[in-house]
Amino acid sequence: MHQTEQTTEPTQDPGPKQARQDLPGIAFLLALVRKLLAYGQHLDTILPAQTASPRFPTFAKGFGTLDVKLIIARIQRGILTAMMLEKFPLAREARKRDIVAKRPEGPAEPEDVEKHEIELRQPRIPRDKALGRTAADIDHPNNFYIPSLKEIEAHVRRTPVGQLIAEISLDLGITVHCCDGAAWQEIWWAMKYFGANMVRYGAIVDNRLDTFTREQEHGRNTRDTDGRDRPREAIRELVGCLVGEPSPSALAAAA
Question: What's the pLDDT at 99?
Answer without folding.
Answer: 85
